[in-house]
């Protein structure tokens, strides 16, 4: 099996590269001077070398304006990860094989077992579709703004978080639940006291890791859902206001670093 | 797995609830949440899921664009792995000795990798298009940069936390650094590295799809075209193709992981 997989991997790598390089790949352009001249001119435009207008990143007003957008972007990321986390907490349990079966647990509700496959399928479907595609679809129904962006991000992250959450539970022992159940607690009580205390620290760790990913993706979601920095990035890019683009990228990097810092603090608290 | 201490638990609860409330306060609740007619479109969209477009010509197009997406993902991931492996190995090798120049090198690699993964691949794509035009190379490089950063960090971190005793034993027998890496560290963490790389391949397929949005072919571009024509049945066919690709990679990865950890 391993040998077949290895051959498969080598095969797919070779034909992918052959396929790309045989077409109009742009690969030879890497070694052409015009390409690099273009790249350099673009970098200069980012830094604002035309001497006609003051670069956006030297104007206080522009910093404040884009700062407000950065603030919205941050709110969008928190909103989306909390939506995803909340819905995940409410639904992930039947997705864990050891809990949905509940063979060893006396008097375990049967419907959990029936829900296993539909729920797993739902996890896969939501996980498979990238955030940007969800966003493109979502803005057909929800008015553009941070809510639409947050919903789009939440759908994809729900799929990932639920899969991870189910795996946490699958790696846990169900014995505490069994003990609680046989000492007369209801299924809900058994879950609340047998699973959640051990599950939550691990889950919070994953949640903060996903938050770091979400903040990086919010800018992309903004391209379509009209919220936060991403929308401004796209507009400025299309209007060739490159110094504004640089300002937005600076704010974006500030956000990314801030979220990385806060999330690692939260992780330490959760440990 | 540990339980949270009581004071930490209280603090965490306050912080998390505070964050959620703050984010909710930023939504403009006075504006209508749904478009006028948005609910009808939503119903149309969901209805189309059971009637995907299945004409032969369209299926052929779906297969072609799915293949394009896969080639971009594979090529981008290859370059990303190259960056990741080289930086992880050299940092590991430099970290073995306690010289200040070596410590400086490790720190430099860490910062470099953090920089690579800070910016989203679509932003890189947008910047590369200016240099290369709408060519596959722009997509591949845009994918390779953040993926190199992520893979490098994960490779380095997991090689670093490999259990100490077997490595010490190898060192005592006088094995060279390369031999320690091959016989000591790598076998201990190899299954994890493989399954993580597969997980990243799954992500790369999604990312390569999204590249379609800036005009570099593949599934994403077709989805965007079909969406703007409001052809929801075509959108669903493309979405099903995506889901199929992800499931294949997922199953493949779990099969390999099972054989490796056996």
Descriptive account of the structure:
The complex is a heterodimer of chains A (271) and B (262). By secondary structure, chain A is an all-alpha fold. Chain A has 12 helices and no strands. Chain A has helices at 2-22, 33-47, 60-91, 97-101, 111-128, 131-138, 146-170, 175-182, 187-194, 196-225, 228-238, 242-270. Chain A starts with a helix and ends with a helix. The model of chain A has no long low-confidence stretch (mean pLDDT 85). Chain B is mostly helical. Chain B has a single domain (54-261), classed as MetI-like fold (Orthogonal Bundle). Chain B has helices spanning 6-25, 38-48, 56-95, 100-118, 121-132, 136-160, 164-172, 177-211, 219-228, 232-261. Chains A and B meet through α1, α2, α3, α5 and α6 of A and α1, α2, α3, α5 and α6 of B.
Number of helices of chain B: 10
Distance between the termini of chain A: 39 Å
CATH topology of chain A: MetI-like fold
User: How large is the radius of gyration of chain B?
Assistant: 24 Å
Elements of chain A, N to C (H/E): HHHHHHHHHHHH
How does the major sheet of chain B shape up?
none
Structural class of chain B: mainly alpha
Q: Averaging pLDDT over every residue of chain B, what do you get?
A: 86
Which spans of chain B of ≥5 residues are poorly predicted at pLDDT below 50? none
Q: What Rg of chain A is obtained from the alpha carbons, in whole angstroms?
A: 24 Å
Taking pLDDT < 50 over at least 5 consecutive residues as the criterion, the unreliable ranges of chain A are none
Task: Tell the overall outline of chain B.
Answer: globular
- Assembly category: heterodimer
Q: What general form of chain A does the structure show?
A: globular
CATH class of chain A: Mainly Alpha
Q: Report the β-strand fraction of chain B as a percent range.
A: under 5%
Instruction: Give the biggest sheet of chain A.
Output: none
Helix percentage of chain A:
over 70%
What's the β-strand tally of chain B?
0
């Amino acid at each position: 099996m391993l040998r077949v997989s290895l051959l498969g991997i080598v095969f797919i790598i070779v034909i992918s590269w052959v396929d790309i390089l045989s077409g109009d790949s742009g690969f030879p352009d890497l070694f052409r001077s015009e390409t690099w001249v273009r790249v350099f001119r673009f970098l200069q435009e980012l830094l604002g070398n035309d001497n006609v207008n003051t670069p956006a990143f030297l104007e206080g007003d522009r910093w404040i304006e884009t700062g407000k957008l950065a603030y919205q972007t941050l709110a969008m990321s928190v909103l989306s990860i909390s939506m995803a986390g909340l819905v995940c907490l409410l639904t992930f349990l039947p997705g864990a094989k050891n809990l949905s079966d509940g063979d060893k647990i006396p008097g375990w509700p049967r419907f959990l077992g029936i829900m296993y496959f539909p729920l797993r399928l739902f996890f896969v479907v939501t996980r498979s579709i990238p955030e940007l595609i969800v966003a493109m679809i979502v803005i057909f129904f929800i008015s553009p703004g941070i809510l639409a962006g947050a919903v789009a991000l939440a759908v994809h992250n729900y799929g990932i978080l639920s899969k991870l959450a189910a795996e946490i539970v699958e790696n846990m022992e169900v014995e505490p639940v069994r003990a609680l159940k046989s000492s007369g607690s209801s299924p809900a009580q058994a879950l609340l006291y047998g699973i959640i205390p051990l599950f939550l620290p691990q889950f919070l760790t994953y949640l903060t890791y996903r938050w770091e990913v979400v903040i990086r993706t919010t800018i992309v979601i903004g391209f379509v859902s009209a919220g936060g920095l991403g929308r401004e990035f796209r507009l400025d890019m299309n209007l060739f206001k490159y110094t504004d683009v640089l300002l937005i990228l600076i704010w974006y990097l500030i956000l990314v670093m801030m979220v990385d810092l806060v999330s690692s603090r939260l992780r330490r608290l959760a440990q | 797995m540990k339980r949270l201490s009581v004071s930490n638990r209280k603090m965490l609860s306050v912080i998390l609830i505070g964050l959620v409330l703050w984010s909710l306060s930023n939504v403009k609740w006075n504006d209508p949440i749904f478009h006028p007619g948005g609910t009808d479109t939503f119903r149309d969209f969901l209805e189309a899921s059971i009637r995907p477009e299945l004409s032969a010509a369209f299926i052929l197009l779906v297969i072609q664009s799915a293949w394009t997406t896969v080639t971009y993902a594979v090529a981008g991931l290859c370059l990303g792995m190259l960056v990741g492996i080289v930086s992880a190995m050299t940092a590991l090798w430099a970290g073995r000795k306690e010289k200040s120049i070596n410590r400086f090198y490790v720190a430099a690699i860490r910062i470099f990798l953090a920089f690579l993964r800070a910016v989203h691949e679509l932003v890189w794509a947008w910047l590369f298009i200016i240099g290369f035009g709408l060519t596959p190379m722009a997509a591949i490089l845009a994918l390779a940069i953040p993926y190199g950063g992520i893979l490098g960090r994960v490779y380095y971190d997991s090689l670093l936390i490999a259990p100490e005793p077997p490595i010490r034993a190898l060192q005592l027998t006088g094995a060279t650094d390369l031999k320690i890496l091959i016989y000591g560290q790598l076998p201990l963490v190899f299954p994890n590295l493989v399954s993580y790389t597969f997980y990243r391949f799954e992500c790369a397929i999604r990312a390569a799809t999204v590249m379609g949005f800036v005009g570099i072919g593949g599934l994403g571009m077709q989805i965007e075209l079909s969406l703007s024509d409001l052809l929801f049945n075509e959108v669903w066919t493309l979405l099903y193709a995506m889901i199929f690709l992800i499931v294949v990679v997922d199953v493949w990865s779990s099969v390999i992981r099972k054989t490796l950890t056996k």
